[in-house]
Amino acid sequence: MKLARKARLIGAGLALVLMAGGIWLVLRGREAAGNSLTLYGNVDIREVDAAFYDSGRISQMLVQEGDRVHPGELLATLDQSRFADALTAATAQAANQKQVLAALLAGSRPEQVAQAKAQMDALEAVYRNDAANYSRYATLAPGGAATIQQRDDALAAYQNAKQTYEAAKQAYILAVKGPRAEDIAAAQAAYDAAQANAALAAQEYKDTKLYAPADAVVEERVQEPGDMTSPAMPVYTLALINPIWVRAYVPESDMGKIRLGMAAEISTDSYPGNLYEGWVGYISPTAEFTPKNVETPDLRAELVYQIRVYACDPHGQLRLGMPATVSITLNQSIQVNAPRGPQACTSHATSH
User: Fold this and answer.
1) If you count DSSP H runs as helices and E runs as strands, how many of each does the chain have, helices first?
2) Which residues 6+ apart lie within 8 Å of 76 measured at CB?
3) SS3 for 108-150, per residue?
4) How far apart are CA 131 and CA 140, in angstroms?
5) Is the pLDDT of residue 199 over 90?
6) Cα separation of the two ends of the chain
7) pTM across the whole model
8) DSSP state letter for 253
9) How far apart are CA 238 and CA 49, in angstroms?
10) Separation between Cα atoms, residue 177 and residue 179, nearest integer Å
11) Using an 8 Å Cβ cutoff, are 250 and 304 in contact?
12) What separation in angstroms does the CA of 224 have from each of 49, 206, 229?
């Protein structure tokens, strides 16, 4: 009897211990669950529609769908023939205007000045000789030694010689002074315009080549060699590799639990067991009704806020639209000056 009673007491004690242990485990589990926030969303990225600056016929398409491209990598080219001709013409016009301006800036050559002076001196001699002839005929005509006709002819010759001499004199003065400042300014403006046209033609020639603007993956090859294209017609659609984030939605009741810069872990069904470092990089300032394609454990009719959880994806495993699960530990300290946006990937990956 005593042994049986002792056994019952020991059994009751063990039961109490096990019950207490079970209660402790349940409470510990609730605390852990209450210390984290799990969200569901989809991987999102930015896209670029790459197009040429000018219209023309495509001559080369150098990358395919799925290819990874880097900044400055050549993607496609246009037929360059007409752009090359335009560049040649504009360059020649600029060279011509340069010579015109140089001639004006150099002024009159010494030979030109000497020629103008010699012509002026010769006409001055004719002018003075005709003046003397007219003076003689004017003196002789009243006495009948010369006719009125001779006097008038001498006067006409004198006046003509005087005007010719004055014209030669002004030409000499202009040769000495050189071009007018206004003519030089006009030639300078014409040369500047020709240079601008040549630079534009050179840029248009360069724009016959399409380069990748950033690290990206070719998502769609829209056109093919031989197609006519224009700036409004994309040639490729590129998916930017950085930044990449998970677009998720937080119920209004949980908004007070998250802050910008909080570290997060991201997982996907496509790569079970793989965890991607991330951080809260954006919280929408406005509420919206839960989108139909969002899965949350709360009612779909309640208001939610969109957030972006930026992800570090060094192996390029995350794809646009891929479902993802985000886990955020709530009792974490946030650095006030912590990096924000895609540039913080290395910092968060090493510090968390």
Assistant:
1) 6, 13
2) 52, 58, 60, 61, 62, 209, 210, 235, 236
3) CCHHHHHHHHHHHHHHHHHHHHHHHHHHHHHHHHHHCCCCHHH
4) 15
5) yes
6) 62
7) 0.63
8) G
9) 6
10) 7
11) yes
12) 15, 20, 10
Of 310, 311, 307, 320, the closest CA to residue 216 belongs to: 320
Provide, rounded to the nearest whole percent, the portion of the chain with pLDDT above 70.
81
Q: What is the three-class DSSP state of 55? A: coil
CB atoms closer than 10 angstroms to residue 241 = 19
Amino acid at 86: A
Q: Which two tokens stand for residue 139?
A: 């003196």
User: HSE (CB half, 13 Å, CA atoms) of 339?
Assistant: 13
Q: What is the dihedral of CA 255, 259, 260, 261, to 10 degrees?
A: -140
Q: Which amino acid is it at 302?
A: E
Amino acid, single-letter form, for residue 299: L
Q: Which residues 6+ apart lie within 8 Å of 194 measured at CB?
A: 90, 93, 94, 96, 97, 98
User: Is the previous residue joined to 339 through a cis bond, with omega within 30 degrees of 0?
Assistant: no
Residue 278 CA to residue 262 CA, distance in Å, equals 9
Please tell me whether residue 346 adopts helix, strand or coil conformation: helix
Q: Could you give the CA distance from residue 76 to residue 290 in angstroms, rounded to a whole number?
A: 42
Please, are residues 265 and 275 in contact by the beta-carbon 8 Å criterion?
Answer: yes
d(CA 94, CA 101): 11
Integer Cα distance of 116 and 61 in angstroms: 65
CA distance linking residue 219 with residue 46, whole number of Å: 11
> How far apart are the C-alpha atoms of 339 and 350, rounded to whole Å?
13
pLDDT tens digits for range 89-135: 999 999 999 999 998 888 777 888 788 888 888 888 888 888 888 88
Give the C-alpha separation, 344 to 352, whole Å: 12
| Cβ–Cβ under 8 Å, residues 201 and 90 | yes
